[in-house]
Amino acid sequence: MTAPLHEDRPAGPGRALPDTQQGMRRRNLARVLHAVRAEGPLSRAAVASRIGLTRAAVSTLVDELIRSGLLEELGPERPGRVGRPGSALALSGRGPAGIGAEIGVDHLAVCAVDLRGTTRSRAIRQGANRGRSPGPVLAELTELIRRVVAEAEGEGLWPAGLAVAVPGLVARDARTVVRAPNLDWHEADLGDLLPADFPLTVDNEANFGALAELWLGDGTPRDFLHVSAEIGIGAAVVVDGGLLRGTRGFAGELGHVPVQPDGPECACGGRGCLEQYAGEEAVLRAAGLEPDEDRVGLLAGRAAEGDEDVRRALRDAGTALGVALTGAVNLLDPQSVVLGGELSGLAPWLLPSLRDELARRTAGPACPVSVSRLGPQGPLLGAAHSVVRAVLDDPATVAERA
Ligand SMILES: [Zn+2]
């Protein structure tokens, strides 16, 4: 019996492989790669027994994957075993790489991740992006991308694609930012402003954060709600190992769920949205603090020192999060709620009131709430890993380009 090999869908538009001989070959290439990823290093014979193909068929597939730079041979297996020693196969540390990028309200970040999932190069630039137009921000991001790609190429890797996480709504074309209120961007086509040398996918940072949690988290279930925040609050719904995107791709706007129908006005045009109570700036205001570059650091530092105003503001933010999440939990019945992104740094002070509220208001047993160990790295890692996953799911597309 073989394990299911192809369950996590890539962030980009899903491609169903045709049921032809070519389609079969492509699926089998993916099955070989997934077997080696899950259990490698493995010999050809071990791969054949894992995926239920003949040794000869697997050898042909493996040779193609080695030629394309996706697999590498580590040399003979341990001596002392019966029969001719087979060479152990591993995912290549020199083949295609996923380039992930993140446009934050206060920073830009880029990284390169190899097929084994190891981050090989990384660049970060701090600086406010709010109110700047997309052109100059993406020019800076392009510079970071070029730097990271050059460093990865120096190690024998080549970029298989670029995925960009943005704090805003992204159209189904996976390149147009429809609205990013905290950057003040509207209808910005990032595809026109980024390097055209490799395939591009743009997605909401909350979606990439949730995918990172699904792929890299500790025992993350296949049905969960992922909540993350910077200045805005985003959420992503993962159902059976895939993102629930909604008709237009805008699902997950938890930050604009009303928690007080007649509360303060919000940038979205509504009133009393969660963001007005639990967004980082709202919490700073409630605690009587001035906005700072390092908002989470400031709040966490004061809360740890025992500042009662800050602790109360965070308790209230936790309650507001609990109220908004109650609606989502009652509607979707997820296995768990995961707090990720910058929010994870404030979890010790948010969680008690959030859990109370959720337990008090949900219809069934209380939904467990956990904290992501990826923290603020989630969206960037999710972006880079989405490119790697797409390669593992359909290696033929890059094998043809290699
Ligand atoms: Zn709103």
- Give the strand order, joined by hyphens, for the main sheet: 5-4-3-6-10
User: What's the CATH topology label of the largest domain?
Assistant: Nucleotidyltransferase, domain 5
> How many domains would you count in the coordinates?
3
Characterize the largest beta sheet: strand count, sense, and whether it forms a barrel: 5 strands, mixed
Q: What is the fourth-level CATH superfamily of the largest domain?
A: ATPase, nucleotide binding domain
Alpha-beta content class: alpha/beta
Helices and strands, in order, run as HHHEEEEEHEEEEEHEEEHHHHEHEHH
The shape, in one word, is globular
Content of β-strand: 15-25%
Share of helical residues: 25-40%
Description of the molecule:
By secondary structure, the protein is of the alpha/beta class. The protein folds into three domains: 21-91, Orthogonal Bundle (Arc Repressor Mutant, subunit A), CATH 1.10.10; 96-209 and 379-399, Nucleotidyltransferase, domain 5 (2-Layer Sandwich); 218-373, ATPase, nucleotide binding domain (Nucleotidyltransferase, domain 5), CATH 3.30.420.40. It has helices at 21-39, 44-51, 55-67, 134-154, 205-216, 275-278, 280-286, 295-305, 308-332, 347-361, 378-393, 396-399; strands at residues 71-76, 87-91, 96-103, 107-114, 119-126, 158-166, 169-170, 176-180, 185-189, 200-204, 224-229, 233-239, 242-243, 336-339, 369-371. The longest helix has 25 residues, at 308-332. Residues 1-14 have low confidence and may be disordered. The structure holds zinc ion. Zinc ion is lined by residues 256, 266, 268, 270, 273, 275. Belongs to the ROK (NagC/XylR) family. Residues 30-81 form the HTH marR-type domain.
